[in-house]
Known about the structure:
Elements: E1 4-11, E2 25-32, H1 37-48, H2 61-65, H3 70-79, H4 84-88, H5 95-100, H6 105-108, H7 127-130, H8 134-140, E3 167-168, H9 186-189, E4 199-200
Antiparallel strand pairs: 1-2, 3-4
Amino acid sequence: MKPYLYLLLGTYARTNHAQDACSTYSFSLELKDECSLHALNASYEAYVARPENEICALGDLDTLLDEQNVDDICRSAINRGIDFDQIVNQDDSKFVESFYRGGTYWNEEVETKYDLDNPNGPAINILKKDLAQIPTYYDLAQKKKVNYPQGIDNLDISNCDINAVMCCWPQDRQANDNNGNCNAPYDQNCIDKDPADNTVS
């Protein structure tokens, strides 16, 4: 599947209305398969044709571009990626490196009801809660590139002859996702269980 491309264009909207929302206005355009003046114009026309966007008189695309080079805009949008630190969203600056070494709670913890601090409490270490932000970035990664992690010794691609990286997942942490043999109840049926698809490159 070819990625979508989002371009952000900023403008001062020309309008006779007094709404604050139109005084300084920015929006994004979604392109698929190609980034060109033709594709940009088609996406822009579709955007301004929507009833909810008619309140702000945006003008024509040439005025908004203000002599900017479309190739430069496309190149900038393509190069604007997501960093791994944004995805994991952790205070620890070394979290990504530790994760790829297999040494974080994301790697090791499995859901359990045996909380020593609160033995009668709810289950803890729930993967869907621990990594709740990941699906959002998975969807976003279909539209933007994910930048290769920098400054991690075991992911230093300059020392790799075949210019590729593979991650292996040794444990299934989540039941009922059709990817491994972890099952509920977790404390009985998800101890040292194996994932089905355990590599990504």
